[in-house]
Hints:
This protein is of the alpha+beta class and 100 residues long. The chain has a single domain (2-98), classed as Winged helix-like DNA-binding domain superfamily/Winged helix DNA-binding domain (Arc Repressor Mutant, subunit A, Orthogonal Bundle). The chain contains five helices and three strands, in the order ααβααββα. The protein has helices at 2-7, 15-27, 32-39, 43-56, 77-98, and strands spanning 29-31, 59-65, 69-75. The radius of gyration is 15 Å and the shape is elongated. The model has no long low-confidence stretch (mean pLDDT 91).
Amino acid sequence: MEALKRLKGHPLNNPIRLGIMIYLLSKARASFKSLQELLEVTPGNLDSHLRALEKEGYVKLKKAIMDRPRTVVEVTAKGVDETRRYLAELKSLLDDMEKY
């Protein structure tokens, strides 16, 4: 269960943050509003999770001026690497569980 120890306390060890990162792996960027609708969370809740991911260097938050100011979330190279690593650890954990 070494994988379980490595996952404990990881920034992606939260379903909302993991959902954000998995979505961004496939899209590279997303609007704040689209993430909010996809994940069915309040603006404050999403903002809190995005700030945590930004602090870790996994995403960048940018303001875009379109018809009105919007927040765009972009995944960073570190975010891609760390999400893939985290998912590999989850897979390893599941593989270990199949042995029992």
